[in-house]
């Protein structure tokens, strides 16, 4: 594993994310800690928040945090900087409602979210999820309609889902541009892959992230209606997770594979 020798607290953490996020991590570190040399700049309050989060996470992590987990934390912050540049180019303004403003003790409401994302990234052994955890930071910074409690709820909901469940939410969220299959999902699949996919789908329905809810047995034991992927819709809970984790960026190949698992 490469050694990083930068002395600025937090910068080495973001740069270490190169193992997960690629060379973009070094570009993000320069953007956050040496913006004078960067071709683009972030909003000052947003950049200060990400620097605070990186610095706090880089301060003597407890022994259970492995070197790879540390790299995931750095990658999440790099991805946050990456999407923040995109959102600024799209004209989405950084919120000015106090979310990013430090109060007594030097802690801003957003710092609670930043700490939660760092911890979630450290624990994310499915490392593709780290990208979307970082994106949650960028989204929350431009979403003035979402308070800290709602953002934290979205983070908890997303962290409790399997990787395939996140991809299924992504599939339903893009239904307008990529229609979902009309073939009914199997009711009693033989293969383990299809069984696991059906379990993931059922948990999303029972957890209130996808409509319709699971069908309940009818009196007399009549046949249950067959569920088709095309029937699925995001609930408000599902919309929250989809929006905060920017699941529009889930790769098309992953969506195709998850839908195939349900066939």
Can you give a write-up of this model?
The protein is mainly α. 54% of the residues lie in helices and 2% in strands. The protein contains twelve helices and two strands, in the order H-H-H-H-H-H-H-H-H-H-E-E-H-H. It has a two-stranded antiparallel ribbon with strand order 1-2. Helix 5 packs across helix 7 (128-141), helix 6 runs antiparallel to helix 7 and helix 6 runs parallel beside helix 8 (148-159). The protein is elongated and about 70 Å long.
Task: Please write out the topology.
Layout: H1 11-16, H2 18-21, H3 24-33, H4 44-57, H5 67-89, H6 109-123, H7 128-141, H8 148-159, H9 163-173, H10 192-206, E1 210-211, E2 233-234, H11 236-244, H12 252-261
Antiparallel strand pairs: 1-2
Brief synopsis:
Helices cover 54% and strands 2% of the residues.
| 3D shape | elongated
SSE string, helix = H, strand = E?
Answer: HHHHHHHHHHEEHH
Could you tell me the strand content as a percent range?
A: under 5%
Q: For the record, give the distance between the C-alpha atoms at the N and C termini, rounded to a whole number.
A: 41 Å
Report the sheet with the most strands, covering strand number, pairing sense and barrel closure.
2 strands, antiparallel
**How many strands in all?**
2
- Low-pLDDT segments: 1-6
Helical content, roughly? 40-55%
| Number of helices, where a helix is a run of at least 4 consecutive DSSP H or I residues | 12
Q: Give me the Rg, rounded.
A: 20 Å
The overall average pLDDT, rounded, is 91
